[in-house]
Amino acid sequence: MKRARAPLARTLLAVVLAGAAAGGLSAQVPFDRLLEAGAEPHNWLTYSGTYFSQRYSELDQVTADNVGDLELEWVYQSNVFGPWQSTPLVVDGVMYVTQRPNDIVALDARTGRVYWIYRYNPSPNHRACCGANNRGVAVLGDRLFMATLDAHVVAIDATTGAELWDVVLADMNLAYAFTLAPLAVDGKVIVGTTGADSGIRGFIAALDAETGEEVWRFYTIPGPGEPGHETWEPCPPDPETYCDPEAWKHGGASAWLTGSYDPELNLVYWGIGNPGPDFNRAQRPGDNLYSDSVVALDADTGELRWHFQFTPADPYDYDSVQIPVLADIVRNDTEFEVMLFANRNGFYYVLDRATGRFLRGLPFVRVNWAEGLDDSGRPVETPQPPGSPTYPGVQGGTNWFSPSFSPRTGLFYIPAWEDYATVFLGEPQEYVEGESFLGGRLTEFEDSPEGRQGPGMTRGPINDWTSVVGRGAVIALDGLTGEPRWKFEMTDVIRSGLLTTAGDLLFSGARSGYFQALHAATGELLWKVNLGAQILNGPMTYEVDGRQYVAIISGHALTTFALRD
What we know:
- With about 575 residues, the protein is mainly beta.
- It is about 5% helix and about 40% strand.
- The termini are far apart.
């Protein structure tokens, strides 16, 4: 279903279109360029840099030896208040970034000069969880693609900012929304929905990039007759507590971050979120596929090729929407084609990305909800006594913020929350269309640096997660074995993604506003600067006219750094 845009929106665009045309702005990014994105590190062509989602760049002008000479180059500050979670794209000297709530801004990547701004005003009645967040755009050909808070997908002319099509994919009144950056693959634009905390039935959909017509849709909660539906088991006779006989219809399983893609296998990989209601597994018996899983889908048809479930029947909101990172790792003359996955449940996983076979799994933070993983990767659960804290807490050992893998070091880097716990209080809750559907309450805990445990904050039904306790760290693991290599402890929590480069650097941010560079091999702190507001996006790097830039968003300001000229 397509929607016409208001004439006023087009009139406002006209103010900046002439300037964009005069500047010679253009973008031509065919699928072949996306396939070889790693070969042009001066650009940043997908949300995670390349289809493998490693957030690694071959740029090496900025190194461990000279990173201390980084200085502020330019700042773009929005008049739209609120911290952004977007990762910019850079195409041949032009930067495209989203700002709240659903604007796209085209900038000169050398100077920050604005070429144009496309403004999309989502319906004020949308029910998107957790703030007016948008994580970025996809580029394909001469078009940009953005998914919106009111469950639309729009296509924009990358040269002028003019809208080309606008498609409605779901009913925002039922709490369907989009916050991810789309993934563009071979003529298709792929998106996944949020809304599991309000009882949606999650899905991933592919649209034709030229027309906006839907090509395929994969429901992350299988219906009757579909493989996996049997994991939404019937209610037992005379249940001791409330049980929903049709729990699958509003079973959640959001797909609210960007996926990854293997061109040789023609598979897209997507992390899937929690079942609904979040905290009361008793009313949804069974393992509840494909919640808390990663799914591998045929990119042409959306057909499921394999899945791996991390937390069956999850009662902790350990949704598995983290970025699936793909890597080819050579050890002892053997190449391992793997998926690397740091999960919110506190375990690190290595999977065969062709089959989904479990290869390795180890905890990377304190875990007490399970004593380990069996030979198939299924957790051996150890539920804590009522009223006792469960580690990790509801925000997880990590969350939506992107990890990084460096082929140069062979290390996988995780933005982690350590020594953080929650007391989970599951309660029966009947589903009501569009309303919060959590099935419980929480009390949060943290361990102080001195090792004392103290209560955090008690809350009822939760609509945002901005006031949580915990302590942040960047943790480096051997990518293939999961063995720890180093850890950089922080004084506050981390919600920033990570970036590694061929200059032996790892960039990360902190909620306190610090932007910092570590040595990727050792974790040594090499450089830091306070930008004055929390950092919630992933840093990225690019090069224009032979000069490397590093970009980060702090609060509602996009800031770039480069070496002194």
